[in-house]
Amino acid sequence: MCKKCSFLVAFLLFFKFNYSQEHVLLDTINNEVFKNEIEQFYLVQSKKTEAIISQLENYKVKEEMKEIFANKKANFLQDLKNRKYLYHKEISPVIEKIFDDIKAKNPNENFNEIKIILALGEEINAYNYGEGIVAINLPLIINVNDELELSFIICHEIAHQKLNHVFSSIQSQSQKGNSSEMIEKAKELKKVKYNRSGLAKNEVKNFVYGARRFSREKEQQADSLGFVYFRNTNPKFVLKSVEALANLKYVDKEKDSLTSKDYHEIFENSKVVFQEEWIETEDFQDYYYQTNTGIWNIDSLRTHPDIDLRVKYLKNTFKIDESQIYEFNKLNYISLKSKSKYDEIVMLFYLKEYGKSLYKTMILLKDDKENPILKKMMYDNLFMISEYKSQYKLNQCLETESPYNSKSYNAFLSFIRNLRKATLSQIISIYEY
Amino acid sequence: MSIKIKKIILFFFLTSFGLQAQIQKISDLSNNQFLDSKIIYDNNGEDVWGYFLLYKGDKKSKSIQEYQFVILDKNLNKVGSNKFQQEFSNHWFTEAFPNIDYLNKNENELIFGIDFDNRYDFGSFLFRKIDLKTFEISSAYFSRNEQLIQDNGLIQNFDEKKLLPDFFVPVANKGFIKYEREYKGKNEFSSLSEFRKADFKGYSFYDLNLKKKWEVKYKLTEDSGENCYSEFANDKYFVVRKNFYGKVYKGKNKYFYEVKDISTGQDIISIPIEDFKYTYVNNKVFIQDNKIYIFDRIYEFDKKNEIYQKKCLGISKRVYDIDKKTFLEQKFMFWTDLAKFHKISKYGEIKGIFIHLLDFKITSEGKTMIVGEGYFTGQQSTIIKNLYTFGLDSEFKVESFGEIETQKTTYSDYVAYGDKLEANNLFDFMYSQKIRSDEFVYFYSDNEVKRGFLDSVLPELSELLPDNWVLGIVVYSDGEFKHQKIKLKTNKGKIYPLKAKKGFIILQEVSKTDNEIRLEKIDY
What we know:
The structure holds two protein chains of two kinds.
Chain A: H1 3-14, E1 16-19, E2 21-24, H2 32-54, H3 59-81, E3 85-86, H4 91-105, E4 115-119, E5 126-130, E6 133-137, H5 138-143, H6 147-162, H7 165-177, H8 180-191, H9 196-233, H10 239-248, H11 260-267, H12 307-318, H13 331-350, H14 354-365, H15 372-390, H16 407-418, H17 421-431
Parallel strand pairs in A: 4-6
Antiparallel strand pairs in A: 1-2, 3-4, 5-6
Helix pairs in contact in A: 2-3, 3-7, 4-6, 4-9, 6-9, 6-10, 7-9, 8-9, 9-12, 10-12, 13-14, 13-15, 14-15, 15-17
Chain B: H1 3-13, E1 24-25, E2 33-41, E3 48-59, E4 64-73, E5 78-87, E6 89-90, E7 95-96, E8 99-106, E9 109-115, E10 126-131, E11 141-144, E12 147-150, H2 154-157, E13 168-171, E14 175-181, H3 192-197, E15 200-207, E16 212-217, E17 230-233, E18 237-243, E19 255-261, E20 267-272, E21 278-288, E22 291-300, E23 312-321, E24 326-334, E25 349-350, E26 353-362, E27 368-377, E28 382-392, E29 398-404, E30 409-411, H4 418-423, E31 429-436, E32 439-445, E33 449-451, H5 453-457, E34 469-477, E35 480-488, E36 494-499, E37 504-510, E38 515-521
Parallel strand pairs in B: 30-33
Antiparallel strand pairs in B: 1-38, 2-3, 3-4, 4-5, 6-7, 8-9, 9-10, 11-12, 13-14, 14-15, 15-16, 17-18, 18-19, 19-20, 21-22, 22-23, 23-24, 25-26, 26-27, 27-28, 28-29, 28-30, 31-32, 32-34, 34-35, 36-37, 37-38
């Protein structure tokens, strides 16, 4: 690790800054207590899983389940060791409070074997990992409108856990894969002389698409049970459940961007003279991108069925009254969201996504040029980008222009790549600390 | 349960983190086996438009194979793909699968030509067209005896002896040249090598649809052509070097560049190569801004046109204005002009090394930038070492001369001089590219390599690249040459550099199990 990076680690450990309110930045180092606690919890849960698997009758299914869960455990413990799951001094208590409320308002349910943890991941997502672990990716915290929406998503995920969906899904797939029907099909394929992979692909496709339908059922079950938990916890705000779902439809949409004017303003009063050609992007109109690639589209594996269907299902099943709107104070959460944007930048840096971290930093910087944390993140990201660029590894930390990116993001990607060595050094020197 | 299914299950349930690297895995683009890839150049024939990848699918019958193509844009985003079926050679002891031999983008159409390791002579190429809007692919076709033949049970039913093969040479992105040969008593040529040995009696130009557009016929009694030729073209002009030895040329010029209008075949200008002052050996000839630039190595004049490889005096630059059909200038650079920069002999020898000039570029101000590489030709071996950069002003006066020290490449069982080394692609210099106006980049490998000649011509026989491979990059910008050396390390296997869009390079990491490509910006 370079000296600057070591400094960054130290900086992140101790840095507090006064920006509207005091906020403790994401701490990717000091998590030993949390790590040990979660590791112990997972090992206990894992032993229980192993005991259940050992009771299974089908030998092949049993052995396969053992292997899958052993891999799953190893992955989780490795991620925990790599600090992909961590405790945040401001965000984690908010999650804990929401979970405590759910527990208190659903006294008949035992939630003691569930841990809800904050995860570092780029996707706006939460997921049930199975074996009692529910993970909330940091960007989800920033992209839900308030803690009630977050509460519904947590209810949904703990419902998955309560219904033991991960275990039952893996078991079901393993059973299906080792069924006499599937074994027979595999034997038939071996006999086929021609078009073998085409036939095999169809079989796999049927297999996984079958799993997808199964998963839809499970999503609906989790929505229903999650709604019950949520209604018990927040009886006046049941409408927030469907609002949380509806919001998920738009979370991927870019909320802010960088314009040419922003670049000019960011570099005004510096030695760097911004040149328009730096943000000229590729003309993707030269290409007719095929929408149906003709290849099996892995995206169709997404487990969550269409949001609209889920909203409709909840409204119809639970007769949600859309006229019942109650006011509530969400100022604290808005403040947390606002501050967590800085955590997201640090998180992306930690994940070595220096390009994305820099892009988000510049978006915030355009309205807050003197913010010390942003200036520092400008330096850190630019420094790492410059290192990667000089080693011809830039693509490992900076995406390439794509027709699926926003115009603003593509312009940013061009900007970074178009900077000559000397200009990049000049810009880095502006932010050197 | 198969490993594949197990992997899918794991993918399905496990959320993994990790670096979201912007790397395109060749194996992720298709479920089939990767066979070959080629660069797709833009309509201008120079800029990279994208990449064409070919995969092998299922056997559909004893001699029908399914293939899949995948097209990537210049940023490695997938544009589209489709499948097609093709007969293939299925002999009792071996199977031959196609290589992409020809690729040409013409507006929204991509034409590609394949062959089967020269197993079948369909003429030069077996073509197919891809619609770049719909990715529909045509049936195969080829030209034989000036007939366009559509593939219809081609391999199984085709009688090769019935029709003469049409050997096409692709020119620019406009079409093909077919050279006509004197049969010398034979009725047909059964192979390309046999065809090349025969006397040259003219040539025809075919468009991309394999339609003959124009032809040139020489009178064999007056214009006996030699058995060598070279040609190049751009969108407007076609240039062929003709070498004649007929009686009418006795005591006169007999080597010319013939410049023609590529659309009509009409003569524009004929440029003599000799001037009886020096003996010229062509180094490079190209068209830029409707001017033809001819760079030749010069030797003391020899009536028989014989040259002594170790007695090159320097280089000549000649410029003709094609539109105005006029000679513009001829300038010389002698090795002795470099003496103020480096100790060098009259014949260009620096510490026992001779310089072979490999790349010539003209700037907007008419300056000439040259890159060459040093070589030593011994009794039983050849050594390649050091890169040389030359900056010459608009008057062809040397402004800069630089030596970049490089690791040496030794061919232990091979003796050759510059032209032969260049023709066999044995220099460490790889390729150059214009980044923008008056900015150029040059790539070379900088590794100590010892190998036999056979390893070089058949790279699949040897592991050519060491695990820690050094890529040398020279950039000409802001009026000067700068260089950098990049250690390309990978734990996975080997890294190969490939041509990319202007200002970029593709790095291809190849391991036993996978093949990844990533696009990197030249850092200068």
